[in-house]
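Hi all, long-time lurker, first post. I run a small reading group and we've been trying to get comfortable going from sequence to structure in the token notation. Rather than ask abstract questions, I figured I'd post a concrete chain and ask someone more experienced to write out its structure so we can walk through it together at our next meeting. Sequence below, copied exactly:
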Amino acid sequence: MTHADTNAPARSRKKLAPRRTEYTAYFAVIFMTAVPFALVAWALAQVGIMDTPEHGPIKSAWSQASIITPKIFWA
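-- Answer (accepted) --
Happy to help. Here is the structure in token form:
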């Protein structure tokens, strides 16, 4: 008796495309939400109220989105 996965066809790109599109949509929403917060933090750092961030506001927002999205998407 053979195992059912032995002759299973390889995954095609067509099956992965909807997941990739959905991940990109989640990433875009989270990134656009993070940008205003990153801009405020960057502006406060420029005024001297907060410590200077390591990166600019866009890089910070991108970093936060790349951390948060997988946690939400694959939870």
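A couple of things your group might point at:
Residues 13-47 form the longest helix (35 residues).
The chain has two helices and no strands.
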